[in-house]
Amino acid sequence: MTQSGDALPEDLIRTLLEARRVVVLTGAGVSAESGIPTFREAQRGLWAQFDPMALASPEGFAANPARVWDWYQWRRQLIADSQPNPGHRALSELAAMTEHFCLVTQNVDGFHQLAGSADVLELHGNITRTICSRTRSPVFDDWLARHADRSPPPSPHHPEGLCRPDVVWFGEALDESVLSAAMDAAAQADLMIVAGTAGAVYPAAGLPALAAENGARVLDINPEITAISSRADWHLTGTSARWLPRLVAALAAESGLRA
Ligand code: BJW
C-alpha cells in the first residue's frame, strides 16, 4: 500500500504498537535533509558527478590514492559542517519506545549516533575513522595532523601502507560480526522499517527480504518507488524527516507515551 497524504495507515500503527522486535535499515536518503548528497539520484547524487568505481573501490584507490583521499576529505568536511535532522532524532526516540530495537545503517556519517542512537550497526563503516590500507589498523588524528600535507598520509603501521577511510568499498567484505548481527536482527524482526535507501547495494539490500521471509512486515519510506518499496507492506511516499517523526508521534499518542 502506498501512502502519500498526511495520515498514517491504521494497520501500520497497530503493527508498530504490537511489534516486539523492530529493525530499521537506513540509507543515504535519511541524511539528505542534513545536506549530505545521496549516491544514485540522477541530478544531485554523488554518482551523477563521480565514477563510483574510481572513488569507492580498492582498484580506484590503487590507481589514484590522492584523488580518492581528497574526495573523502571533502565529504568529511561536509559531514563535519552538518547536523542530524528530525528523521535521525525520531529514530533515537523510537528506540526508547520499543521493546527490542536494532538500527542498521549503510551510512558512514555517524549522524544516528549524534542524534542519540546507541548500538548502531554500521554496515559500510564510518568516514570519520582512518585505517592503514595494508593492515586495516586504526590511524589516529595526531598522526593525520602531523602528515596533513600528504594526500593521502603514509601509514604508521606499514612501510607500503597509506591512510584510507574506514569504509567498505565495492568488492570489499563487510565486517562479519556487524553483518551477522544485522542479519540475525532482520530474521527475528516483527517489523522492518526501511528509510532512504535505493536498495541497490548488497548485502544490505537483501535485509528487508530476509525479514519478510521470516514473517516481518516491511515499511518503506522513500520519495521514490524502489525495489524495496514495491515489495513492502507499506510505502510512505516522502522524506524520512517528514514521516519518521509522524510515526513516532502516532506511536506515542496510541501508547500513551510521550514522544
Ligand atoms: C530519500 C530522501 C529523503 C532521497 N528521505 N529518502 C548481489 C547481487 C549483485 C551484486 C552484488 C551482490 N552482492 C554483492 C554484490 C556486489 C556489490 C553490489 O551490491 N553491487 C551493486 C551495485 C549491484 N556489493 C559489494 O561489493 C559489497 N561487498 C560485498 O558484497 O563483498 C563480498 C565479499 C565477500 C568476501 C570477500 C570479499 C568480498 C560492498 C558494498 C559497499 C558499498 N559501499 C558504498 C560506499 C561506502 C563508503 C562511502 O560512503 O563512500 O556504500 S557505495 C554506496 O551505496 C554507499 C551506500 O551505503 C550504498 C547504498 O546507497 P543508498 O544508501 O541506498 O543510497 P542511494 O543514493 O542509492 O539511494 C538514496 C535513496 O534515498 C533513493 O532511493 C532516494 O529516492 C532516497 N531519498 N532523499 C528519504 N529526504
What does this structure look like?
With 259 residues, this protein is α/β, with parallel strands linked by helices. It has two domains: 1-33 and 84-124 and 175-259, 3-Layer(aba) Sandwich (Rossmann fold); 37-81 and 127-167, SIR2/SIRT2 'Small Domain' (2-Layer Sandwich). The chain contains eleven helices and ten strands. The protein has helices at 10-18, 46-49, 52-55, 58-63, 65-80, 86-96, 111-114, 141-146, 176-188, 207-213, 240-255; strands at residues 2-3, 21-26, 100-105, 121-122, 125-132, 138-139, 163-167, 191-195, 217-222, 234-237. A seven-stranded parallel sheet has the order 1-10-9-8-2-3-4, with helices on both faces. A three-stranded antiparallel sheet has the order 6-5-7. It starts with a strand and ends with a helix. Residues 27-29, 32-33, 38-41, 45, 56, 106, 108, 124, 167-173, 195-198, 200-203, 221-224, 226, 239-240 line the site of ligand BJW.
